[in-house]
Specification:
20% helix; alpha/beta; 15 strands; transferase; globular; 6 helices; Glutaconate Coenzyme A-transferase; 239 residues
Amino acid sequence: MKGLDKRVASIEEALDGLSDGMTLLAGGFGLCGIPENLIAEIRRRAVRNLTVVSNNCGIDGFGLGLLLENRQIRKMIASYVGENALFEQQLLSGELEVELTPQGTLAEKLRAGGAGIPAFFTATGYGTPVAEGKESRQFGDRHCILEPAIQGDFAIVKGWKADWYGNVIYRHTAQNFNPLMATAGRITVVEVDEIVPPGTLDPAHIHTPGIYVHRIVQCPCERRIEKRTLQTGGAHVDA
């Protein structure tokens, strides 16, 4: 079954073929469930003019924010960008092209892309700037706009466990956008905490089947906390 073995020996090998101008799908929500080692390797490679699709763009100095610092992102397709001052600066200066997308619409664009559905109608965004230039139709009493699906050249994903064949389990809220990204990449790369032999994972617990995964790599994860909330004397304090 060697041909089904998706394991690669290094983070460098995991991203073979990534080049300038590609569309990159990145899993995660804030700093939860981000493929931080793959992002660091993309920074090291210094590939340029990337279109990056992700819920948000990390924070200053970590996650996708590292690629912003290195001026590697040409266009960002995201639903939330409020935690990154450098993102704001590059947007306002015209250095970074941004396509803001409602969060549920972004999720459905990726799901549709993974399912081979080219576009879909949604009521979200009708009558707002989101609808500008898009086809609209009325279904019953609801006006809808046509949204194209999203696919990427590479999808980078953070999993918890995977077997040799690329079947992946995510841990708790790290499930977020990762399963959607995994289905919509032409090449899907998953970094995981642990790789286990075939037959080890309970099939009922697998979130992403190996049919969607091309490469898996095991590597340590820092797991930074974006906002740490402490409790002192009955009062909550954000640190």
